[in-house]
Design a protein that fits this description.
By secondary structure, the protein is an alpha/beta fold. The chain contains eleven helices and 16 strands.
Length: 355
Amino acid sequence: MSGNRINTRYIKVDQAHPEADAIAEAGLILRGGGLVAFPTETVYGLGADATNGLAVARIFEAKGRPPDNPIIVHVAFRSQLNALAASISAAAEILMDAFWPGPLTIILPAGTGVPEAVTAGLTTVAVRMPDHPVALALIKAAGVPVAAPSANLSGKPSPTRAEHVVQDLDGRIDAILDGGPAGVGVESTVLDLTSQVPIILRPGGITPEELRACLGRVEVDRDAISGYCDGESPRSPGMKYTHYAPRAPLLLVTGSQPAVASKILEMARVEAGGGRRAGILTYSDSSDYSTVGEVVVAGRRDKPETVAAGLYSALRRFNEMGVDIIFAEGLEEKGVGLAVMNRLKKAAGGRIIKV
């Protein structure tokens, strides 16, 4: 990022009925090559005109994003796919009927007019239609598809509120549309439809079970389960690099709940004995860790969708607490729990303890 600080406009909008003047202003910024952060049903996105390679390049600069990490393109109408995809399969049509607008990104063969900055040099393009009134109104006002990764500094926890965007990107982007908190809380599911068998490259708000109910056989990429891509070029946004990480190192502890609790209590006591403050990411039905560290409850273990909604705010809360190390309890990797564990594994950067 250059040393020149931008005067970032902060625009408050009604989530259910976004004001036309505010949306028009933000759309004008996008059409002029600017960057606008906006809410979706998953997290806040950082938008640029997807047809303008120079504008998309500004996203990478503002976020400090690696250039080989492709960006999802957001549309408000299916007709916008005509300028993005070389072809649209029957499976894609089935999924769009079932899940759009919604937290599902599909990977299609890229059209010739898609800037390389969007695809990161791949022959495919990732597209979705967000299920949020502000996001849809903004795309319509801009009159172009909008390329938008999460609106955070690269590698940090994704933003689910406008204040999170301010913390990371104030002075780096042109405007922030504050439409209230995001709902799902983790990014969209990314499904590759260019392979012989549809494959989930990133778990998200649409579960493998829901996709299989529509398409039959759907596989989950091994890197999506492990939380890390060991290939040279990621095939989907958010695959290759450490992501979602708070400032303090995070250790993910997996296994039976009693064994996990015992291990975290043991490790937190050791940290306290050494004068270090431990943060503990836990759930409403877990053990009491209050005597050994700073506790943040992300949601309910039996309702992983509540954990997804609270996960990134919880990780940012540890930044505010200034803890030295974080211990996080694992979840069952089923349904939305698969997406939560994918994010926790990435936040841990390989620091996983199985008990």
